Amino acid sequence: MPDFFDDRRPHEGLTYDAYTEAWEEKLKRSMAELSADERRYQHYARYNWERAEAVEQEYTASEELREVMSTIATPQLWMVLTDDWCGDSAFSLPIIARAASLSDHVTLRILRRDDNLDIMDQYLTGGSRSIPKLVAFSADGDELFDWGPRPAAAAALRERLIAEGAEGNDVVEPLITWYEDGGYEDVEEELIARVEAALPVRP
Questions:
Q1: What are phi and psi of 112, to 5 degrees?
Q2: pLDDT greater than 90 at residue 188
Q3: For residue 88, which of 8, 97, 111, 126 sits 20 to 30 Å off, Cα-Cα?
Q4: Residue 203 lies in a domain
Q5: Rg (CA), the chain
Q6: Domain assignment of residue 194, yes or no
């Protein structure tokens, strides 16, 4: 069991509703009161709010996801490290939250990355603090599976673009387009595989 789990830090994270409520409240801040850096992140947060809302409206959980989530028979805590400025998270977190809501045995809690860097540093991707990062635990604190920071197809697209010399928005914009064209549904497919692989072997 990780020390942070024993200290119940994931348990004290935000619910999805509390996270989105804080996100919405943040968007009400006046730009005039913010520093240049804060204004930049405020823009990211606003764009991502719109993206997350679109996913919420367009996405319907598949019967396969409903079935696999119904097979979870013991308590799990799903910890997600993320923040509202993250574009990948805007498309992925609504899917994760919907999946978690399909099981009475799954508790979803969200930790803001920069407030929990010691935890984040235990789940790096290629040495990077990439988010969102989902880690599922049993009630005893055993790690059952992890996912993130993006679907495999999105990761491959990003790697190809960077290998071709793309930087900044020339990497971000094709990724956003990929998600908007329905790529976020890959999150569901990969979650199904992770949950299935973590289920107890039936005799």
A1: -70, 130
A2: yes
A3: 8
A4: no
A5: 17
A6: yes
Measured CA to CA, the distance from residue 161 to residue 178 in angstroms comes to 13
CATH number assigned to the domain comprising residue 169 = 3.40.30.10
Task: Taking the CA atoms of 83, 26, 44 and 115 in sequence, report the sign of the dihedral they define.
Answer: negative
Nearest to 179, CA basis, from 153, 203, 141? 153
Question: How far apart (Å, rounded) are the C-alpha atoms in residues 6 and 55?
Answer: 34
The residue segments making up the domain with residue 180 are 3-198
Give 106-129 as a 3 state SS string: EEEEEEEHHHCHHHHCCCCECCEC
First-to-final CA distance of the chain:
27
Token duo for residue 36: 């240049």
Residues ≥6 apart with Cβ < 8 Å to 120: 81, 113, 129, 131, 133
How many residues are present in the chain? 203
Residue 12 has pLDDT above 90, yes or no: yes
Largest CA distance in the chain: 63
One-letter identity of residue 119:
I
pLDDT tier at 43, thresholds 50, 70, 90: very high
